[in-house]
Design brief:
5-stranded mixed beta sheet, Glutaredoxin, 147 residues, 18% strand, globular
Length: 147
């Protein structure tokens, strides 16, 4: 029993660390919609090529990794990475979900940020890299904040 408890504790700690290391980003769209509905938030989809897209990496480094973005996102957004990597292997379930999201939202390139409400309806889009992404998102959230 002690061994099982130790394993479970390690698993929870690892999961929490991974979530924190990802800055609150997840890859489960359905879970994000459910949380957005419960918490009265919007969902931000980041269509990215995390291991090959230079503009995506720049957006991560210059916007998403900053404390002001993280604070804003924590209070206003559920964050979903919709990744299309070249060499990183994703679980089949995530690949299938991401392909469906790509068909639904039709990003014109990478990165593309799509802001959706808790029902999955698109309310705003940012196509391409923008160093002003946070300011744009703040305005879009203010205009579409769930009641």
């Amino acid at each position: 029993m002690k061994k099982l408890l130790s394993i479970l504790t390690a698993l929870v700690a690892t999961t929490a660390f991974t979530f924190a290391a990802n800055g609150g980003w997840d890859d489960d769209y359905s879970k994000a919609l459910t949380a957005a509905k419960a918490d009265k938030k919007l969902v931000l989809l980041d269509f990215t090529g995390s291991d090959w897209c230079g503009w995506c990496m720049k957006l991560d480094k210059e916007v998403f990794s900053k404390a002001d973005f993280k604070a804003f996102a924590k209070d206003n957004l559920e964050l979903v990475t919709v990744d299309f990597p070249n060499s990183k292997k994703l679980p089949h379930k995530v690949v299938k979900q991401n392909d469906e999201l790509k068909k639904t939202f039709k990003p014109n390139g990478f990165p593309t940020l799509v802001l959706v409400d808790a029902d999955g309806k698109e309310v705003h889009r940012i196509g391409g890299y923008s160093p002003e992404a946070l300011e744009i998102l703040k305005k879009a959230v203010d205009a579409n904040k769930p009641k």
